[in-house]
Amino acid sequence: xxxxxxxxxxxxxxxxxxxxxxxxxxxxxxxxxxxxxxxxxxxxxxxxxxxxxxxxxxxxxxxxxxxxxxxxxxxxxxxxxxxxxxxxxxxxxxxxxxxxxxxxxxxxxxxxxxxxxxxxxxxxxxxxxxxxxxxxxxxxxxxxxxxxxxxxxxx
Amino acid sequence: xxxxxxxxxxxxxxxxxxxxxxxxxxxxxxxxxxxxxxxxxxxxxxxxxxxxxxxxxxxxxxxxxxxxxxxxxxxxxxxxxxxxxxxxxxxxxxxxxxxxxxxxxxxxxxxxxxxxxxxxxxxxxxxxxxxxxxxxxxxxxxxxxxxxxxxxxxxxxxxxxxxxxxxxxxxxxx
Lengths: 155, 174
Prior knowledge:
The complex is a heterodimer. Chain A has helices spanning 2-16, 28-38, 57-71, 76-87, 102-129, 137-147. By secondary structure, chain A is mostly helical.
């Protein structure tokens, strides 16, 4: 009786496996391709999730749409173009460089340049403000006296 | 003068953030504006044996309102659509999106029906073609079948008066 119970407990993990990976299509190669593509696409409902990981209804539908388009022989690029034509560049996690996105892509570098130019101007200005100080003979003597005090032998 | 610059930069940044607060990240500009509305033929809600085709609307300005009985904001815009329908300015075509026929019909029976006709998009394929990502969404389509405006979210009296109605009048005059 005891052994039977132990055996049953050992078998438990086998049952917990049921119900997993329901979304997977019959074709694992196609599914892999779909997931790889969908990882770079944004789900429009929960906007910080990818189309591959989102559980919203729309994401589910769009994954199905992508699968069907792949089955019909469309290339990844054609599918991405289709989705962009419907939902805009916003579906791309990696937005293309074009007129509207120039600020997005190069804005940070522009800010960096402005900062650097400001820094250079500041430093140059400071250079002109600091004038060389020439020590008078008296000051030089005092300095020499301070620097050359004999060491205390006791320390 | 130089001491003033960091303050100016701060004010500019604060200004950007303030504007950012009032923007709704859920409003994604549609790339379909000024593009031909995707053609579709779908069964009608009240008589599934009959079909509705978007081609039938050629030659008139019309509204395509995507809704569903399960959609909460649709209930919010419903009275606005009802009063617009009473004014008889423009035909409002409904697209019942991913809904059960009986649920859609029941909702229109109890809440009133502002639609000239309702088509059903059960699997959401037409919705994908129109770039629908959250109901309700409303499209203004002109006589040539080109999408001129898309309202994301509920139609309010305010944006009806300010945007949609003037646009319809302009398109109808063409």
